[in-house]
Amino acid sequence: MPSKPIDFSRRVAPVDLPEWLDDPCTYEQLRSYLGDLEQVNTLSFGARPTVQWLGQLLERHGGQALRIVDVGCGGGDMLRRIERWAKRRGLAVELVGIDLNPEVVRAAREMTPSGSRIEWISGDVYSYTEGADGVISALLTHHLEEIEIVRFLTWMEATARCGWYINDLCREATPYKLFSMVAILARWHKAVRHDGPVSFRRSFREDDWHRMLASAGVAVEHVEARRWTPGRLCVGRTKSA
Q1: Residue 4 lies in a domain
Q2: Residue 25: is its pLDDT beyond 90?
């Protein structure tokens, strides 16, 4: 009997559709998972939207050194990409990665080349008191319940002096199916093969973001929501200089 078609019109909450990454595992399994996830992000040009936004932010603020905080930094590939990009262009950025999971932060440190100046912090971002010019996140919000995302949006709006940027997935059938096929062919970690499709079902569309922004007290007209191929929906806010 054929399986029931997946309904992409509504988001499936994390509590109703868990990811394997949320389950306990050994450090070696976690490190392998994060390594394959970095390959996924590289092949899908996942850092491109964030880097483009950051370039515009730096230009808007006259190329001055900005402190950029990556919330839910995971294995750190986003910040490593930004550091290489900034170095090639002679741009001054201070990069900080924060993640709740100390083992994830350990992996980020180990996966980062010596000589890097990225600061890695294990802890709750709501206890972070150093301030930030820009706050970014990548593939974080689909892990959260909506009430948690509203709190995160509220915190970013209050904390980020120059702006904030959320880089996540778009809940659509085509990227869901494409990822499922590529993940099998590439023989990525079994948890990546499972969690990738789940992540698409737990992600958002524009109307979801408009609703959450309103709940956080952030005017929709001050925020840009843009789709990026393949399968990304990024939401950003750049504040006046």
Answers
A1: no
A2: no
Neighbours of 130 (CB within 10 A): 11
Residue 75's nearest CA partner among 161, 20, 138 is 138
Burial class (CB in 10 A: 0-12, 13-18, 19+), 95: buried
Write down the residue that tokens 């350990």 correspond to: 106
Going across the sheet that includes 232-238, the strands are: 119-122, 93-99, 66-71, 132-138, 160-169, 232-238, 224-228
Q: Is residue 100 part of a domain?
A: yes
Q: How confident is the model at residue 2 (pLDDT cuts 50, 70, 90)?
A: very low
> pLDDT tens digit string along 152-208?
999 999 999 999 999 999 999 999 999 999 989 988 888 889 999 999 999 999 999
| CATH number for the domain that contains residue 148 | 3.40.50.150
The whole-angstrom separation of Cα 100 and Cα 238 is 26
The count of C-alpha atoms lying within 13 angstroms of the C-alpha of 157, restricted to the half-sphere facing its C-beta, is 18
- Give the count of domains, the chain: 1
R_g (Cα) of the chain, nearest Å: 17
**Structural domain span for residue 84:** 20-238
14-18, 65-69, 170-174, 183-187: segment of lowest average pLDDT: 183-187
